[in-house]
Amino acid sequence: MPRRTPPVAELVDRAREGESRAVARLISLVEDESPMLREVMAALSPYAGHAHIVGITGSPGVGKSTSTSALVTAYRGTGKRVAVLAVDPSSPFSGGALLGDRVRMQDHALDKGVYIRSMASRGHLGGLSWSTPQALRVLDAAGFDVVFVETVGVGQSEVEIAGMADTTIVLLAPGMGDGIQAAKAGILEVGDLYVVNKADRDGVQNVTRDLRNMLALAERAEGAWVPPILKTVASRNEGIDEVVTAIEDRLTWMRGNGVLDDRRRSRARDEIEAIAMTTLRARFAHLHGDARLDVLAAKVAEGNTDPYSAADELIAAL
Amino acid sequence: MPRRTPPVAELVDRAREGESRAVARLISLVEDESPMLREVMAALSPYAGHAHIVGITGSPGVGKSTSTSALVTAYRGTGKRVAVLAVDPSSPFSGGALLGDRVRMQDHALDKGVYIRSMASRGHLGGLSWSTPQALRVLDAAGFDVVFVETVGVGQSEVEIAGMADTTIVLLAPGMGDGIQAAKAGILEVGDLYVVNKADRDGVQNVTRDLRNMLALAERAEGAWVPPILKTVASRNEGIDEVVTAIEDRLTWMRGNGVLDDRRRSRARDEIEAIAMTTLRARFAHLHGDARLDVLAAKVAEGNTDPYSAADELIAAL
Question: What is the pLDDT of residue B87?
Fold first, then answer.
């Protein structure tokens, strides 16, 4: 039985009052690419731009969800409202993630100040979906003070998450060959904080030293943020308060020098562009209700024109 | 000292006569996103649409380059002209690949019927670049009968390569946990041929059986191509002729039922769309010489409008 969707204004009000079901409904509208999204985004826009978006990335097994959970608890201790968006860049489906959400929510089930949600990666372009920024916009406007975006660091995903976050935490752990992985995946360009988790294990000194050496080699402009290296044992809550302090230091630093505003404008720019491109792509596909693109494609395939001339024709027909 | 670029018509003629340097120069124009590309593509279009584009993908270590090299030799034995485009989706740089090209070319250095080239993946969207289809267009128009596109199967790359190829070969090898990998990465949806390489090793029966079981579960329309499973030891040239036969069977099948034409039109469609989108993106960035997108981004960041309304304004300003 399809659920009735309440009016957008009502959903937005309830989400801002901390009602998890209203937040969930709004994010589902994003996931489903609902035609109501325009109205939702218009209703949310006056409230957006206040959350600190914190990306958390790292290889499988470094302890991302344990660390995130510990950070959520620590932030709740300071009275802040916290949301977690766990993005799985390897799966086009979100179904399987829902059970995980429920398990993860158990610690915070009665706490209206916490919201946890998994999202699959969408879109045929691979990597993190263009719906992720919109889900972040929902959580931001819903009044969460801190929004963690957690994703497995594979391929391009950590670069993409860094583009969406104000602050990016790169998690590592001893004994996983992370030093080599770090250099390879280019995570040294995206981390604002480096956290070596499982710091009670052998090899923590090696990881920390490798990381320090590699960060020392990075070129950094005068006055640029210098990423701190922290150690945690997230499963025992060790070092978590220090991570919270570092996140807050970073926020203060960004606020003081305009970096936060720059990041937000840059994200808005990417979002507008993505929506405009998606809109235009849809228009190409259904141009004047005929199959103009198909006709052009057939001409190119038969060698009767080239793709550049065909693209010119397509744009001219808009 | 910058090299003089000969006139496009001359380059195209020389490339069609099998001159490797002319082919290389044309592909460099693609890689450099040269302003001459429009002219190049226009000059090439009458000759395009004849090559059989064969994708080769598989996890690291399954023997992709050995297999490709054996296939090149086998095809040369039948008198066909063969090109190899090796795409590295993990690297934004192509510099390191050039030495590899020279090593790989040694076996075929005096053979005008063979061309081998590595390309880095470009573009901020991740995955295979939009320049790959254009490089394939160059090789096609240069008169190669078969063009192999080789890429490491990681993340989305095998799905993307399948979109660019007429025929996709998925390579596997025993003892690499490929059965599980296969299901996970969705390669069962992209393979037209499955080749279990290193078939002299333990575990070849397991891989073949797992693969057969999984392929048996796939839903297939009436009359659809049924992917064969082949075994090779590429390093000793065993089973390679059978792979060539299977590739040619697939080509005959595609020619007979219109699938080949469909694929080519679909590829042309993607190419036109990608070029049109890139053109429009550039126009957004420099709209009327002002910073319209920046102004809109600031308004969205400050909550004065939402990204959908901003996208509408951007499109209206085109």
Answer: 83
